[in-house]
Amino acid sequence: MIRTIAREKFVNRTWTVPVLDDLGAYWSDLCRMTCGVGPAGWKPKHAIELRISGFPRAAGPAIRDALNHRYWAPGVTVTAPNPDEFVVQWKPTEREDPPAGLGLPLLTKGPFEGLIVEIRFAVANRRRALTSTTTSGWTLVVLGELRNRALIAK
Description:
Distance between the termini: 20 Å
Number of helices: 2
Oligomer: single chain
Strand order of the largest sheet: 1-7-6-5-2-4-3
Structural class: alpha+beta
């Protein structure tokens, strides 16, 4: 192992909403450059999933109620693929900018403090079909613990 990159302990990184905004814009620009498309011809499709876990099973119904209360907009679904995880999924849309904070602002209050959040942000050019964050496009994944209105990641 190379001594200069070996780490015995990884440092916590704080990902606030403005930092996630910048990260989403950077990811979208990187995908645009990968496609070889100029800024004028770039009309991306975005899809976002928030996977929430790390809660006791007894708290599941309260978290589901909070999610259903916050995510009532058309094109947004809340599912529970297993008893230990909730998935909030935005339907893929065509827009210039990624959603604010990659969806994190809606989890900054309530029973979500201390939970594990995985953000999956997928981008595809308008010529490609984007059906989910795992089937097509380029997907950025950020995983961390929600603390003090920010995502703490390693």
